[in-house]
């Protein structure tokens, strides 16, 4: 196990890369499939990493608590070298109820992880839906020109202050970030790198 901390590659408010990935339900997803949500919490994660497993419950709770936020897990690990991260194993984690995200996607080519600059599991990216009506209304009222239907980076960093799998969190940074996005505000948090196992590159 190689511990790694996330790195800032995409600037806040910049458009984020789209993707086309297969989900555990055998459906193909793009960012456009989440256009009904005000925000998407895109988390590069996996099945076997203890750092990732320690955040399963938090992510499941966010998916259940926030109707306007889609929680999307992306597994980019090399499944040939790490069979615990195979697509079939991903489906088992979902079927067993351990993972209850809005979607759990397989980045088999690892191109999406590279496009986002993801390096560890978990590596969370909170995306703001600039095309959502609530966001467009906020921009109109502030005098800004509403943007087209696109997702931009609102926050990239740790989910909470529990950096090790056995730590108990006392601060939930992601809740603060989500509340800011849903209120149409900028996220005030500075970049705090997430920590986890390195993504297993091919």
UniProtKB/TrEMBL annotation:
GO molecular-function term, one example from the UniProt record: oxidoreductase activity
Lineage start: Archaea, Methanobacteriati, Methanobacteriota, Stenosarchaea group, Halobacteria
Signal sequence region: none
UniProt protein name: Peroxiredoxin
Residue ranges of every copy of the Thioredoxin domain listed in the record: 10-183
Superkingdom as given in the UniProt entry: Archaea
